[in-house]
Amino acid sequence: MTTRGRRAGRRATRRDLVVPGVARLDRDRPRRVGVPEVVLGEGKSVAHLLAIVRALATRGEGALVSRPTGAQRAALDRAAREGLALRPLARGRVYRLDGPLGARYRPGTVGVVTAGTSDVPLADESAAVLTELGIRVVRADDVGVAGLHRLLRALRTLERSAPELYLVFAGREGALPTVVAGLVPAPVLGVPTSVGYGRGGRGEAALNAMLQSCAPIAVVNIDGAVPAALFAAQRMAVRPTAAARGRATRPRPRARGRPGRASAS
Fold first, then answer.
1. How far is CA 245 from CA 59, 231, 261, in A?
2. Which of 9, 69, 77, 233 is the most exposed place for a label (fewest CB within 10 A)?
3. Half-sphere exposure for 8 (CA within 13 Å, toward CB)
4. Are 58 and 25 in contact (CB under 8 A)?
5. Are 194 and 205 contacting, i.e. CB atoms less than 8 angstroms apart?
């Protein structure tokens, strides 16, 4: 690693928000990659999640919390009733701590398409994240390949909004992203959902089918609604200007003494 890279790494580390014994939050991520850090609820204790959210709130920073468990949702709702500026999105599948998320986005539109009604809750997650980031979302639900006439009609409507990217959710045989990619001029990101049963159920067949697509699509993991939304958001992220990048990464000049003399302390 170069000296400049090491210095940038040290500065990013100093920007981390440390919750002692719990977490080290990457506060530099919005500037560096254009998306906010999302706090994953799954796998954390209720106490740890609350400690992270309260630490962010104390600093006046916003946050998104994804995949909270039932116990975590109850605790977050209780904290909101007690005055924490926190609200559920997508029927509680995502929570939003009010405050700045750090990244800025230009105007843009993302199409969100679901194969069936069972895929809608995951699509709601993506749509909620994108909406909180200020990105426009246009939707078409329950337009799977079992009734192609529905899809064709829906795509004609969506295309009037000129989406720059489509997030396409499908379980079972997972064919919808491939079909959409063959009909629209924008990139398609397939999101396999854990809908289906028996052999290849719980999203396995859908994921495999999307990975074998003969159309140019990208694919996230099963039920990867939040990663899909962040991938879409990166396309709309406003990059820091060269001057702003320089201010964020340029090391401070060291005090210099006259040649042959030590600098005054």
1. 23, 22, 34
2. 9
3. 15
4. no
5. no
Count of beta carbons in the 10 Å neighbourhood of residue 1: 8
Burial 130-141 (b: 16+ CB within 10 A, else e): bbbbebebbebb
Q: Where in the chain is the domain with CATH 3.40.50.1970?
A: 109-236
Q: Which amino acid is at 250?
A: R
Q: Is 124 exposed, middle or buried (0-12, 13-18, 19+ CB in 10 A)?
A: buried
C-alpha dihedral (242, 248, 249, 253), degrees to nearest 10: 110
The pTM of this model reads 0.84
Place of tokens 């990166």: 234
Asked if pLDDT for residue 8 goes beyond 70, the answer is: no
Residues 6 or more apart from 128 whose CB is under 8 A from it?
A: 89, 90, 93, 94, 96
Instruction: Quickly name the fold that domain 109-236 has.
Output: Rossmann fold (3.40.50)
CB-based contacts of 162: which residues, under 8 Å, 6+ apart? 109
What are the Cα distances from residue 138, in Å, to 30, 45, 112, 141, 188? 25, 35, 6, 10, 14
Instruction: Produce one character per residue of 144-179: b if its CB has 16 or more CB atoms within 10 Å, e if not.
Output: bbeeeeebeebbeebeeeebbbbbbbbbbbbbbbbb
pLDDT tens per residue, range 65-121: 999 999 999 999 999 999 999 999 999 999 999 999 988 999 999 999 999 999 999
For residue 258, the one-letter residue type is: R
Cα gap 56→118, rounded to integer Å: 34
Q: Which residue, chain included where needed, has tokens 């495999």? A: 208
